[in-house]
Design brief:
The chain has 460 residues and is α+β, with helices and mostly antiparallel strands. It folds into 2 domains: 8-298, Rossmann fold (3-Layer(aba) Sandwich); 398-460, Nuclear Transport Factor 2, Chain: A (Roll). It has helices at 8-18, 20-30, 74-77, 90-98, 115-124, 137-150, 191-196, 199-216, 239-248, 323-333, 356-362, 387-391, 406-413; strands at 36-40, 53-54, 61-64, 81-83, 105-108, 129-133, 155-158, 172-178, 220-230, 251-253, 265-271, 274-281, 291-298, 319-320, 339-344, 347-352, 368-371, 373-379, 382-385, 400-403, 426-432, 435-442, 447-449. The strands form 4 sheets. Strands 5, 6, 7, 8, 9, 10, 11, 12, 13 and 17 form a 10-stranded mixed sheet that branches. The protein has a 5-stranded antiparallel sheet with strand order 14-15-16-18-19. The chain binds S-adenosylmethionine (SAM). S-adenosylmethionine binds at residues 88, 110-116, 134-136, 139, 162, 178, 180, 208, 212.
């Protein structure tokens, strides 16, 4: 067994938790290569990986035997899968077990880069609505990109501090806080996390987590669920935060069934004659990285609020389109009857009309980065389709589809010119293994590549 150097204070605490012998197994596991796993997009066409080892707590999660270059895989850019660490996929098992309402309104409070938001998006499918929020601007842009690639149209991306949610008490059926933490569970993957770790940093993270949960705890409606997770092992950032939530709000414990072969460790916290459960993922026991999660159910009699619909939607930048546009768009683009359309910066956005009042109410308080599906811009007599629409799961009827070979697909994703034989003039939807990658426009003497500049592959 080889041992890796870890911060001394961390080492002595883990020895205390695990005992000396188990600690050695834990340390040795941290020295091994991290596992690679992906989660498939159930609404897109499956990539041809050799997917034979499923993540046991996820229906769509798979381990890969080696780590390919995802950047050079067109299907990664088409949003057919998300590269996600296996322990995090346990959220799928939780959602199924608690039977979280698929037609509900969910909030992912700390969502970037989007691993858990895309998982929730897949769970909600076409029925529900997700607010994926990230406070840090640059990270919110990455979140937006990943939500667009996932392409389900059921998500609104916002960039707000938890404080900005004050008016939304009792609004959500489910709130997930995958909190910023000291990252002990990432020590195998991320050497920087080891060097940044200190007891002071743990205390600072715990303080921040309390501040976030003090707000997040209010946002769940009566009978709804609060899920709190970290990628760290210590009790200060886990059980102590659970204790804090229960001291501030009325939440019932939820126990999640486990199979012993999974290696997940259940912890129990006794509070006022109730047992609250936490689930720890140790890298020497599970096929995944370090993780902690706890699930709580808000008392049925807690305050709940439905969105207050105003007769005229007023927003400084977003305009609701009327009946005529709605009827024309539904017909022209073969969109569902439950469609609402908005205009922002001259571009037309689709939203599931079942969540129109939720969206309009939320837009009063939140800084919106993206929502639904951006379809395109009207320019003179033309409709200019967006990349967002290309990557969405909505039909793109009436356009010429062109299936690319791998090399051309990579060139397209590098935003290079590609020459294609036998294509008509106009907009062409390029696909790779039948998954849309984006648009080119054939002008006869040349073609324009409409892949977003900021997304292009830069790797050689
Ligand atoms: N849920 C994400 C996923 O599965 O891809 C990972 C979230 S990461 C563990 C925590 C996130 O919280 C980071 O993106 C970080 O920027 C954000 N964050 C940092 N400070 C925060 C704060 N004060 N309130 C809310 N979120 C914060």
């Amino acid at each position: 067994m080889s041992f890796i150097d870890l911060p001394k204070a961390f080492e002595s605490r883990m020895k205390e938790y695990l005992g000396k012998v188990e600690y050695e197994r834990f340390n040795s596991a941290l020295g091994e290569d991290p596992l690679t796993s992906i989660r498939l997009n159930p609404f897109k066409k499956t990539p041809p990986f050799h997917l034979n080892k499923r993540v046991p707590w996820s229906e769509t999660g798979f381990y890969l035997t080696e780590r390919p270059s995802f950047t050079l895989d067109p299907l990664f850019h088409a949003g057919t899968y998300y590269v996600q660490e296996a322990s995090s996929m346990f959220l799928e098992h939780i959602l199924h077990h608690i039977q979280a309402p698929r037609d509900g309104v969910f909030l992912d409070m700390a969502a970037a880069p989007g691993g858990k938001s895309t998982l929730i998006g897949s769970y909600l499918g076409q029925k529900g609505f997700l607010v994926a929020n990230e406070v840090i601007k640059a990270r919110a842009s990455v979140l937006k990109e990943n939500i667009i690639k996932w392409g389900l149209g059921n998500t609104m991306v916002t960039q707000n501090d938890p404080e900005h949610f004050s008016k939304l008490e009792g609004f959500f059926d489910l709130v997930l806080v995958d909190a910023p933490c000291s990252g002990e569970g990432m020590f195998r993957k991320d050497k920087e996390a080891r060097s940044e770790w200190s007891n002071d940093h743990v205390a600072l993270c715990a303080h921040r987590q309390e501040r976030i949960m003090d707000k997040a705890g209010t946002l769940v409606k009566g009978g709804g669920y609060l899920i709190y997770s970290t990628c760290t092992f210590n009790e200060q950032e886990n059980e102590e935060i659970l204790r804090f939530i229960c001291s501030e709000f009325s939440y019932e414990p939820v126990q999640i069934p486990l199979e012993s072969s999974w290696g997940i460790v259940e912890s129990a916290l006794e509070l006022e004659n109730k047992t609250y459960f936490g689930y720890r993922f140790y890298p020497h026991k599970v096929f995944g990285e370090g993780f902690f999660v706890t699930v709580l159910k808000r008392s049925e009699d807690a305050y709940s609020q439905a969105p207050q619909r105003t007769k005229d939607f007023k927003h400084p930048f977003i305009k609701l389109e009327g009946k005529l546009v709605k009827e024309n768009m539904i017909k022209a683009l073969e969109l569902p009857q439950s469609s609402s359309f908005y205009t922002l910066n001259g571009s037309c956005f689709w939203l599931n009309s079942n969540f129109q009042s939720h969206f309009e109410y939320l837009s009063r308080f939140l800084n919106i980065k993206y929502f639904g599906v951006e379809l395109g811009k009207f320019y003179k007599t033309q409709f200019i389709p967006t990349h967002e629409w290309a990557l969405s799961i909505f039909p793109k009827t009436g356009f010429f589809y062109f299936e690319l070979e791998e090399k051309d697909a990579i060139d397209f994703l590098r935003k290079q010119d590609i020459s294609l034989e036998g294509i008509p003039e106009g907009w062409i939807l390029l696909t790779y293994q039948q998954n849309p990658l984006g648009w080119i426009k054939n002008l006869g003497n040349r073609t324009n590549n409409y892949y977003p500049k900021e997304w292009r592959i830069r790797m050689k």
